[in-house]
Amino acid sequence: MLKPIRPELAEIQISGIRRFNTRVSGTLGMIKLTLGEPDFYTPEHIKQAAIDAIHENFTNYTNNAGMPELLRAASDYFNEKYQLGFSEEEIITTVGATEAIAVALETILSAGDEVILPDPIYPGYEPIIRLLGAVPIKVDTTASGFKLTPEQLEQAISEKTKALILPYPSNPTGVSLDEAELAALASVLEKTGIYVVADEIYSELHYGAAHVSIRKFLPKQTIVINGLSKSHAMIGFRIGFLMAEKNLLKEMLKVHQYTVTCASSISQKAALEAVTNGKEDCLPMRTEYKTRAGFVEQRLLKMGFEIIPPDGAFYFFVKLPDSVQENAFDWAVRLAEEAKVAVVPGEAFSEKGERYFRLSYAASFDDLAEAMERMQNFMAQFQ
Ligand SMILES: Cc1ncc(COP(=O)(O)O)c(C=O)c1O
C-alpha cells in the first residue's frame, strides 16, 4: 500500500466553475456563460510576434524573471497606465496570473498564518492558502455592495494576519474600489506590516474612472498581480506579471525559478509586443464589454433579478429573486437542462453563494441576446 499523500489535498476540490462547466459542456446548443475567458482573438501583431519568435529560433530559456527588454517594457507599461512605480528589477514574468498568485502566497505564508479574503471571491487563492497550512479568513461583503469596508477589515485582522487578498475589479462581482475606498483600506493596513496581494488582472477592463492601484498608498506592503490574459485576450499564452518591492521580489524569484524556471520564451516575445505596441489593444474590447454589460443588466433587471452594477471585468454576480425557492445550484442545473443556458452557481465563489449565480458576458452579443430570451422564458414560471 502506498503511503498517504498530503492530507490537505483531501479538502481541496477542482474549482466549482470548471466542475459546472464540464457538467453542462456535453449538451448540444447550450449557451455557456460560465467561463471568464475573452471571446476575442489575440490581436494580429501579437500573434505575429510569437510566430516570428519561433521562426527566429527564440526557443531557449530566458532569464528566470523574463527577458530584460520585456521587464523594462512591462515596468514602463504599468507605470504609464497605473503609476505603479516598480522598476524592471521588481517584476517577474510568470505563467499567467495564476502562477503569480501561487508564488506570492508561497513566498509570504507559513503554516498557521491567516489571510483575509473578501467574500465572494475568485476561487484561485483559497486552495493555495490551505495547501500551505495557512488559514483563509473570509469576510462577507454581500451587505456592503461587494466591497470590503475598513471596519470589516479592522475586525478581521488578528495577530496572525499575514496578508489581505484584494482583487479589483472583482471576479465574480465586477465591482471595483475607487481611490478613496483604497485609501481608507490602506490606512487600516499602514502600520500593520500586513501584505496586500492586489490582483489587478482586470485593471484594463474598468468602465468608469481609471483603475487605481492600492500600491499608491502602500508601496512597500503591496504585491501587485497583473497579466495579459484578459487585457489582450492572451489567455493561452500564459503570461502574468508579479510585482513587488526589490527585497521581496528576490525571494519570490527563488520560488518562481524552482517552479517553472521561466515563462515561455515565445509567449514572452508576444508579451513584449503587447506591452510595447499594444497599449491600446484593450480599448475596442472594453467598449464592447461595456455595451454587453448594459444590455445584460437591463434584461436581468426586467426578469426580477437583483444586481449590483459592475465597474469592470466581464461578470455579473446576480441574486435570485425571492420567488425562486430552490437554491442557486438546483436553479442553475434546471436553467441548463430546460433552457440551455449555463451560468455558475454562486457557491463556487462564496460561502453565502446559495442565492447567487455568476454570469460571464465574455460571449458574443448574439449568444447573449439569445441567452436572455431563453432565461426570460424560463423565469416566467416564477412570476
Ligand atoms: C481574479 C483573477 N485572477 C487571476 C486569474 C488567472 O489569470 P491567468 O489566466 O492569467 O492565469 C483569473 C482568471 O479568471 C481571475 O479571474
UniProtKB/TrEMBL annotation:
EC identifiers of the protein: 2.6.1.-
A GO term, aspect molecular function: transaminase activity
CDD domains, per the entry: AAT_like (cd00609)
Top-level enzyme category: transferase
GO biological process: one example: amino acid metabolic process
Signal sequence residues: none
UniProt cross-references to InterPro entries, sorted A to Z: Aminotransferase_I/II_large (IPR004839), AspAT/PAT-like (IPR050596), NHTrfase_class1_PyrdxlP-BS (IPR004838), PyrdxlP-dep_Trfase (IPR015424), PyrdxlP-dep_Trfase_major (IPR015421), PyrdxlP-dep_Trfase_small (IPR015422)
Cofactor annotation: pyridoxal 5'-phosphate
Keywords on record: Aminotransferase, Pyridoxal phosphate, Transferase
Start and end residues of each Aminotransferase class I/classII large domain: 30-373
Family: Belongs to the class-I pyridoxal-phosphate-dependent aminotransferase family.
Record protein name field: Aminotransferase
Species this protein is from: Listeria kieliensis
